[in-house]
Amino acid sequence: MNKRQALLVASMCYIIFFSVLNGTMFNVALPELSQEFSLTPSGVSWVVVVYALIFAIGSVTYGKLADIYPIKRLIVIGLLLFSAGSLIGFFSEDYWMVIVARIIQGSGSAAIPALAMVASARYFPIEQRGYVMGFVASTVAFGFGIGPLLGGGIAQIFDWRVLFIVSVGSLLALPVLIKALPHEETQGGSFDVLGAILFGLGVAAFLLGVNTNVWFLVIGVLFFVLFTLHIRVKDQPFIQINLFQNKKFGLLLLFALCIYFSHMATFFVLPLVLADVNKLGPGWIGLVFFPGAMIAALLGTRAGRLSDRYGSHVILRWAAIMMAMGFLTISSLISVSVIWISVTLIFIFLGFSSIQASLASHIASTLDPKETGVGLGLYNLTAFMGGTLGPTLVSAFLELNTTRWNPLHPGGFASYSNGMLLLSLISFSSLCILAVSNRRMSYVPAAE
After folding, report:
1. Per-residue pLDDT tens over the stretch 295-314
2. For residue 448, pLDDT beyond 60
3. Cβ distance 52 to 27 under 8 Å?
4. Mean model confidence pLDDT for the chain
5. Which of 34, 64, 384, 403 has a CB 3.0–4.6 Å from the CB of 39, allowing a cystine?
């Protein structure tokens, strides 16, 4: 890796850190927002929901734009939007201004992970991609670990508005990115605006259906049907129809859905377990999660190196096994010891970080080079949807109050044990999906 590539990796990780912080810090500030603007829980939740909607749609849109326009131009636009939304939020006096700020933030922040993945696939040879994505995975793990602690401290010492101004620090990387990113010419082709709108509305309706009203799911299906009909007749559609015919790509997206479903559901189930079973407060719950997040951050680059050495499919397999066994262990020991839960989380977080370091490169290897941007954008969207579905569906499962399923569990709090067992089964299922995908033919990139 030369000096220019090293600068590019460092600057990408820097802005990814701010993107992750922005997504994790605000959760701890929701009570302050609710109190200041006299909001109900459903009302204040829109601070998170609108950001999530825009971020999900934007991840695919920026990926598609990267197939046409230079990444350098798109990342400048994204960072400027991200910072503009942050400034609006910092000076907001009314709740509607906060919502507008989060919409603008999301439209800019979505560019960061989407374009970072495309840049990793486009500007680095295949034998270095795992190493690069290892740095990205470590940064994400560190951001997840430090975000709630940093956000809580800032909101408590200063004011929730200061959380917005933190994200403006991402602009410091802009001169380095402009210097490190290679010069590119605009590619031939046009952007399918109608296709993007139909796809975006379908995604938005689906996410609203999962989080609010089931009738939005019906509306989402309608928009996706219209989108499918549109791309069949459009000369240069938002997403090429043959991308959906790439079976290995589809199977890897399903693998990602299972992994992100399981991992993000952990952040919902375990705080409930630690509060209800172990009687821990918020601060102690954060400390239970902290070691796993930090160790995953420290070892993420190592996982990337191993991916380059032994192949991403090997790392994906063993990382999924680590996650599945970790969930099974917690299911069995859920009422035994907080220390064992914290230790087991190290393996779950390390497995997830290793998958993050390997999966994007593995997916990119199945795509035609002209479809890398939108393909990785769909991967980002799938990961996001898995992270949304996990907590929502597992929360519904816990309300069923099921009896004990795991014979290794000593008894008591069976619903929590069964919830973790369900996550273990989903993770084991992802191994079957991965095995099938490895038998499928893939696209071979024309040039590395």
Report:
1. 887 787 777 778 878 888 88
2. no
3. no
4. 84
5. 34
Burial of 387 (0-12, 13-18, 19+ CB in 10 A): buried
What is the pTM for the complete model shown?
Answer: 0.80
> What's the token pair of residue 259?
């992994």
For residue 132, give both structure tokens. Answer: 């690069």
What is the distance of C-alpha 118 from the center of its chain? 15
Cβ neighbourhood burial of 125 (10 Å; 0-12, 13-18, 19+): exposed
Which single residue is written with the structure tokens 């010492």? 157
User: To 5 degrees, how large is the angle CA 7–CA 13–CA 18?
Assistant: 130
Q: Within 10 Å of residue 34's Cβ, how many Cβ atoms?
A: 17
User: 240-296 pLDDT, tens per residue?
Assistant: 888 878 889 999 999 999 999 998 888 778 877 887 787 877 667 777 878 887 888
* Torsion sign over Cα 43, 45, 50, 56: negative
Please tell me which residue, 157 or 42, carries the higher pLDDT value.
157
Q: Do residues 348 and 263 touch, judged by C-beta distance below 8 A? A: yes
Residue 27 pLDDT? 67
Q: Hey, what are 317's tokens?
A: 């397999």
Asked whether the beta carbons of 292 and 349 are under 8 A apart, the reply is yes
Q: Which of 92, 114, 116 is nearest to 165 (CA)?
A: 92
How many Cα atoms within 13 Å fall on the side-chain side of residue 364? 32
